Amino acid sequence: MTTHTIMTLIDQYGYFAVIFLIALENVFPPIPSEIILTFTGFLTISTSMTVWGAIIASTVGSVLGAVILYAIGRIASPERLNRFLGTRFGRLLRLKPTDIEKAARFFNRRGNGAILFGRFVPVIRSLISIPAGMSGFPLGRFLALSTVGTLIWNTVLIYAGSLAGNHWQAIVAQFEVYSHWLLIAVIVVLAIVGIVWFCRRRHLAQTTSKMKELD
């Protein structure tokens, strides 16, 4: 979706367009929330839209999109994933049901922070809803954390757009740089965690194999 299309929709349909576009952005991450929110903030000084109205509309859209992905995660439950791992294609992943259980336990322990702070990271703010659903993370708590996280993110960008006025696109450029480097940092951290997990698992497997040989 082009920037021109986004601007036209918001200009014509106001809050309804904001709800729709932000919900869509959550489900399809390539749609940039920075443009949607900062342009909406700019419109609050030149149209009948208000800052608080824009914040509420964008937060409703964010939570709606998050719930859709959460529901997808619930449908793709650990039980279904375990059945898939038992198929020929699933065995290629070299994952065991215990790995899925460990992942679910980890998310239940660390899920609060992941959901809350994940709302500030592009792409991650969309994907984080799926493992939340898969792990059976409580829906009420998921909604509360998602609402708080998106409320903070949306408020910052909408206020920035309203303060920047005609220069709102400069704000978008700054946030795109922030989003780019933050996403890279998250990917690097996840890669390191993945490598450490893989090495530990491999070491444990080798140790178990040697112990069996000694027996």
UniProtKB/TrEMBL annotation:
Location of this chain's protein in the cell: Cell membrane
> How does this protein lie in the membrane?
Multi-pass membrane protein
Q: Where is the VTT domain?
A: 31-162
The superkingdom listed in its UniProt entry is Bacteria
Q: Which coarse location class describes where this protein primarily resides?
A: membrane
The record's Pfam families line, in alphabetical order, gives: VTT_dom (PF09335)
Tell me the InterPro entries matching this sequence.
DedA_domain, VTT_dom
Q: Which residues form the signal peptide?
A: none
Sections of the chain in a coiled coil: none
Q: Mind telling me which residue stretches traverse the membrane in this protein?
A: 12-31, 51-73, 142-161, 181-199
UniProt keywords, alphabetically? Cell membrane, Membrane, Transmembrane, Transmembrane helix
> Where does it sit, as one GO cellular component term?
plasma membrane
Task: Provide the family line.
Answer: Belongs to the DedA family.
The name this protein goes by in its record = Alkaline phosphatase
Which species is this UniProt entry from? Secundilactobacillus similis DSM 23365 = JCM 2765
